[in-house]
Amino acid sequence: MTYLNSSYFFDYNDTTIDVLLKKSLTNDLSSKEKAIRLYTLVRDGWKYDPYSINLSKENYRSSTIVQKSTGNCVEKSILLISLLRGAGIPARLHLGKVKNHIAVERLTEKFGSNELTPHGMVNALLDDKWLKMSPAFNKSLCEKFNVEPLEFDGNNSSYLQQYNNSGSLFMEYTDDYGYFEDVPLDFMKKNIEEHYPHIFKTKKGKTEFKL
């Protein structure tokens, strides 16, 4: 199946990913149990950092991401997809646009907007059903902002924290770009440049990323 393939980005055959899989999973686990364990591992094992963006191709390899301690939503989704595929669970990248409503001051200062795009999440095939999951927000970050951490039970989609624990609007999806077999880096670069033109500069007729 296509969504089980390794690729330049989903390089689960790399030693770093293989070691993590062997360390995290046992053969007696069901596919659902494996998916739950890997989801929680990525959610909490890498702190969410939306402010660090590197558009180099190398940066979006799961073998690169796994060696860091933080990651943005797309990077963490790529890592989870690679681990899921390495565990024999079909998975794909799903991109969209979200609007944050809590703790948006730094986002607005950095990006000129409280919208984040492209926002990454994961689709995984379990019991012949594609389920959505978002490993972006680690548990400690959720506790800091009084938001219930997203749990994944292997039976239902879990990808949107719409409200915080006080009932205030936290996040909403404002656009859906669909799912992708591999990482659509050219699409992502174009999307970022269109939404945040001020974080690019033109030098000798060439557009360069300057964050």
UniProtKB/TrEMBL annotation:
Alphabetized Pfam families for the sequence: Transglut_core (PF01841)
Residues forming the Transglutaminase-like domain are 26-135
What protein name applies here? Transglutaminase family protein
Q: Which organism is it from?
A: Maribacter flavus
